[in-house]
Amino acid sequence: MNPRNVLPARPRATPTKSHSPAAVREVVERALEDLKARDVKVIDVRGKTSVTDFMVIASGTSNRHVKSIADEVIRKTREAGVQPLGVEGEREAEWVLVDLGDVVVHVMLPRTREFYGLERLWTVGDEMPEAETTEALPPGAS
């Protein structure tokens, strides 16, 4: 193995009592709510990847709205003492990714979100809700 091809370990936020993944996720959700992000989905990816614990996906109505939402997430998490590890896509603002370590936030335009289908990608194999499971059963089965 060539040492130049080895990627360095990705830094992870050190969990503390005040900065647990769930606490960071709550700050993110409040920021999304404050700026009226649409169709917010929180996906628990623990056990599926070691990169993060939660992926939060939300939509904005325009490029300006997407950028404003991402800026609010960054502002609120910094106020809470969580420094983003990286932010990508701010210039184009069709898809802005905010990496908070244990929580990764994707803010997208609806057409971009539909095209990439992150929800489908990260929920493949998850159990279906009971109502959907019942509908899939043949008549007479319980």
Question: Describe it for me?
Answer:
This protein starts with 20 loop residues before the first helix and ends in a 6-residue tail after the last helix. A 5-stranded mixed sheet has the order 1-2-5-4-3. It has one domain (19-119): 2-Layer Sandwich (Beta Polymerase, domain 2), CATH 3.30.460. It is built from 5 helices and 5 strands, in the order αββαβββααα. The protein has helices at 21-34, 63-79, 110-116, 118-123, 130-136, and strands at 38-44, 54-59, 86-88, 95-99, 103-108. A hairpin with a 6-residue loop joins strand 3 and strand 4. The chain is globular. By secondary structure, it is an alpha+beta fold.
Set down the secondary structure blueprint.
Layout lengths: L20 H14 L3 E7 L9 E6 L3 H17 L6 E3 L6 E5 L3 E6 L1 H7 L1 H6 L6 H7 L6
Parallel strand pairs: 2-5
Antiparallel strand pairs: 1-2, 3-4, 4-5
What radius of gyration results from the CA coordinates? 17 Å
Quickly give the CATH architecture.
2-Layer Sandwich
H and E string:
HEEHEEEHHH
Strand count, sense and barrel status of the largest sheet are: 5 strands, mixed
Poorly predicted runs: 12-17, 128-136
Structural class: alpha+beta
Q: How large a portion of the residues is in β-strands, by DSSP E?
A: 15-25%
CATH topology: Beta Polymerase, domain 2
- When the domains are counted, the total is 1
Question: What's the CATH class label?
Answer: Alpha Beta
**Quantity of strands, as a count:** 5
Order of strands, main sheet, comes to 1-2-5-4-3
Query: Portion of residues in helices?
Result: 25-40%
| Count of alpha/pi helices | 5
